[in-house]
Amino acid sequence: DKTKGGTGVLAALNLESHPALLCSVYTFGKAAGCHGAVVAGSSTLISYLVNYARPFVYSTALPPHSLISIRQAYEAMIGPVGESRRK
């Protein structure tokens, strides 16, 4: 199983930095038990989104308590407990 490890197909195939990828979208549902998502990309893409998708960006911003929940969930998933559960 190439996706073993729980980090996704692109990571399993070592394609996370492939030049053909426009951006990465990280979701915080399901495994993290939270809500929301983030788009990660080049400074050109981020500049485009800030300038042309401003209403969407600011209407979907997460409150501070959600950001803290996401951080704690990811710290648990990538820490020793998460590693042992993935085996």
User: How much helix, percentage-wise, in residues?
Assistant: 40-55%
Query: How big is the Rg?
Result: 15 Å
String of helices and strands = HEEHHHH
Tally of alpha and pi helices: 5
Report the principal-axis shape.
flat
The major pleated sheet works out as: 2 strands, antiparallel
What structural category characterises the helix and strand content?
mainly alpha
Strand order of the largest sheet: 1-2
Mean pLDDT: 84
Strand portion: 5-15%
Q: Pick out the low-confidence regions.
A: none
The overall strand count is 2
Q: Span between N and C termini?
A: 13 Å
Describe this structure in words.
Strands 1-2 form a two-stranded antiparallel sheet. The radius of gyration is 15 Å and the shape is flat. It has helices at residues 9-12, 43-52, 54-59, 64-78, 80-86, and strands at residues 23-27, 37-41. The chain contains five helices and two strands; from the N terminus they run αββαααα. The mean pLDDT is 84. It is mainly α.
Q: What descriptors fit this protein?
A:
5 helices, two-stranded antiparallel sheet, mainly alpha, about 90 residues, single chain
